[in-house]
Design a protein that fits this description.
205 residues; alpha+beta; four-stranded antiparallel sheet; 36% helix
């Protein structure tokens, strides 16, 4: 329903219920804030000048796989508005992916994630090292560390973040290595085990 809400297409009775829900749900408030930014950005898009580059195919698969999973839990009586909201949200997510891809960042799609977790990352090489923009949803509450792994097996910490609930966590992290020194990207729960690990495509120095 959030996708339809930020696009102004949610019926008044559903809008009232959603706003009441968001008052007590920080995860949904965060989703609405993020999608709202994209909805506002869409107002500046010229439909007569499509992007020269499309997002990678795996981003479409990730978005619509999530839609399918969400649909399994939809309440039958609200299926129509639920589907409308999911489609609107999917369209916004794809626009975000397209803008990120065109910005020059390297999009990382985590191939294996814990049940109920959705995660993505964008890597940018800067003069200070590898900047990691991470978005993750569904992690259990706790403290997590982001790291890059080198070809020798050493791990270089890039920063930590806190999860208070199952909502979306978004942050920027920095590891002081060049991209060609990095073999993998991962997230570990401090005092626990790895929760996200993704090998990176090899690049030459």
């Amino acid at each position: 329903m959030i996708g339809a809400y930020v696009l102004g297409g949610l019926p008044e009775d559903q809008r009232t219920g959603l706003l009441a829900h968001m008052d007590g749900c920080p995860g949904c408030r965060a989703d609405a804030a993020e999608l709202g930014k994209v909805a506002r950005a869409l107002e500046t898009v010229d439909p007569e000048r499509p992007a020269a580059e499309a997002p990678p195919p795996h981003l479409y698969r990730a978005v619509f796989s999530r839609i399918e999973a969400e649909g399994l839990h939809a309440v039958r009586s609200r299926r129509r508005i639920r589907v409308a909201g999911l489609v609107a949200a999917a369209a916004l997510l794809i626009v975000v992916a397209a803008l990120t891809f065109r910005s020059g960042g390297e999009v990382i799609d985590f191939a294996s994630v814990p049940r109920g977790v959705v995660a993505s990352a964008v890597l940018d090489e800067t003069s200070a090292g590898m900047e990691v923009h991470l978005e993750v949803e569904g992690l259990e509450p706790g403290t997590y560390g982001v790291w890059m792994e080198g070809y020798g097996g050493d791990r270089l910490p890039a920063g930590t973040f806190e999860v208070a609930d199952a909502g979306v966590v978004e942050g920027d992290f920095l590891a002081g290595w060049r991209r060609d020194e990095c073999r993998a990207l991962g997230v570990t729960r401090l005092g626990g085990e790895d929760v996200l690990v993704q090998e990176l495509p090899h690049v030459s120095g």
